[in-house]
Design goal:
single chain, 488 residues, alpha/beta, Aspartate Aminotransferase, domain 2, Aspartate Aminotransferase, domain 1, seven-stranded mixed beta sheet, three-stranded antiparallel beta sheet, EC 1.4.4.2, Probable glycine dehydrogenase (decarboxylating) subunit 2, pyridoxal phosphate
Length: 488
């Protein structure tokens, strides 16, 4: 692999004496090492950095960038992850000096505009969700889940209610039970019925006076809106519990319905899924939460408030769960979300959701006779097709299809999730894609089903890495690279 030009390490290109820049000699005395630095910690030789000219640096990293798939370069129907277009105007706004160059320790008097933006965003998120109390601090969706469950725990403690259990459907995102466990609760699974909705009888059998929260994604991970949620909320509330709405799929219902209106007490947003922030690459991210008014006192500090005509960060809240993120969170992501919301306005957000639902249903109608959709002929912004019949007839699996799509220049959908569908392919086209793109994707899926199984078992054929051992990569990742000693 290292012999391939585009995958060489930058160290492989190094030649002694080459430079991308040369600095003038120091015109001041060189300061000696400070006396308090231990001698053993002082380097005796310069660090072994690569020595390369500027053209080589530019070509190297440009070549590496072309090996990646991204929303800007490929169709990316990654179900549940909502890989929608990232408008470039949002990037420009977030890069303005007044946002990008702010230091977190600046005085509030010098960042009134920034604080005003965040204050407005709190109100926007509250209005869109129907839950008025908002914290922008959490750093990711799962972090927002954990934060909201910590808020719930504080609420139950103050009210001297011994609540130990969190319920979640078997189709829930894996972060739901993980967040419950980290917040100190026991996670209890509720079954889905044959239609993919919450099994109400199973839910009722598990409702007792130890229930703290019922967590549900709606629309759910099968791409369907569960109209039972108001009844679920009534049953949970009668027991003194709370409803948590996993906001991962909010892109389907913006401006159409609000979680607070159908019974939710808490929720988080994924700004990268719903409000077009950059997605992937390890972050940074954001996971703002919205909660009902009765939970406001327990939100993390600080929150942005307007006091005597000025915007300020309020820390004085003795009932708060405290800080969950350094400074105020990843505000650059929040600026992008603000830009997206202000650009679209209420009608535009509703239109985005309507088009997301339309695109998903169009694509479902194009492929359902080849890949059955067990949970019905209609969906929200995503749907889960199954390659189980194809695998039984030809041996071609969902993974084979996913890998082969890479050869056609398209990213794979989510596969093998949710677990309740065999050979699952979770497909989400988003509102960003054209009819031509969706038609081509459906055509490619048909082509793949007609290709020899042996060809697919070894796909992809055009990428530099074909099929790595994913289990080994997950369990024993190689996170370091060591420079080999130079030959003498």
């Amino acid at each position: 692999m290292r012999n391939t030009k585009s995958t060489q390490l930058i160290f492989d290109l190094s030649k002694k004496g080459r430079r991308a820049a040369r600095f003038p000699a120091a015109d001041v005395p060189v300061a000696p090492a400070r006396e308090w630095l231990p001698a053993a910690q002082l380097a005796t030789t310069p660090p072994p950095l690569p020595e390369v000219a500027e053209p080589e640096v530019i070509r190297h990293f440009t070549n590496l960038s072309t090996l990646n798939m991204s929303v800007d370069t490929h169709f990316y129907p990654l179900g549940s992850c909502t890989m929608k277009h990232n408008p470039k105007r949002n990037e420009r706004f977030a890069s303005l000096p007044g946002f990008a160059d702010v230091h977190p320790h600046q005085s509030e008097e010098t960042i009134q505009g920034y604080l005003e933006l965040l204050h407005e965003l709190q109100h926007m998120f509250g209005e869109i969700s129907g839950l008025p109390a908002v914290s922008l601090q959490p750093a990711a969706g799962a972090h927002g889940e954990l934060t909201a469950l910590m808020v719930a725990a504080a609420y139950f403690r103050e009210n001297k209610m011994n609540r130990t259990k969190v319920l979640a459907p078997d189709s829930a995102h894996g972060t739901n039970p993980a967040s419950a466990k980290m917040a100190g609760f026991e996670s209890v699974t509720v079954k889905s019925n044959a239609s993919g909705y919450v099994d109400m009888e199973d839910l009722k059998s598990k409702l007792d006076d130890e229930i703290a929260v019922f967590m549900i994604t709606n629309p759910n991970t099968l791409g369907m809106f569960d109209s039972q949620v108001p009844e679920i909320a009534r049953l949970v509330h009668e027991r003194g519990g709370l409803i948590y709405l996993d906001g991962a799929n909010m892109n389907a219902i913006l401006g159409i319905t609000r979680p607070g209106d159908f019974g939710a007490d808490m929720m988080h947003y994924n700004p990268h899924k719903t409000f077009s922030g950059p997605h992937g690459g390890g972050g940074p991210g954001a996971g703002p939460i919205c909660v009902a008014e009765k939970l406001r006192p327990f939100l993390p500090v600080p929150t942005v408030e307007k006091v005597d005509g000025k915007y300020t960060l309020v820390y004085d809240n003795p009932r708060s769960i405290g800080r969950v993120r350094s400074f105020f969170g990843n505000v650059g992501v929040l600026v992008r979300a603000y830009s997206y919301i202000r650009t679209h306005g209420p009608d535009g957000l509703k239109s985005a959701s309507e088009n997301a639902v339309l695109n998903a249903n169009y694509l479902l109608s194009k492929i359902k006779h080849i890949f059955p959709v067990p949970q019905g002929d209609r969906c929200m912004h995503e749907f889960v097709a199954s390659a189980a019949d194809l695998k039984k007839k030809t041996g071609i699996s969902a993974m084979d299809i996913a890998k082969r799509l890479l050869d056609y220049g398209m990213h794979a959908p989510t596969v093998y999730f949710p677990l309740v569908v065999p050979e699952a392919m979770m497909i989400e086209p988003t509102e960003s894609e054209s009819k031509e793109t969706l038609d081509y994707f459906a055509e490619v899926l048909f082509r793949i089903t007609e290709e020899p199984a042996d060809l697919l078992h070894e796909a992809p054929h055009t990428t530099l890495v074909s099929r790595p051992n994913e289990v080994q990569a997950a369990r024993s990742p190689q996170m370091q690279w060591k420079l080999e000693p130079a030959a003498k």
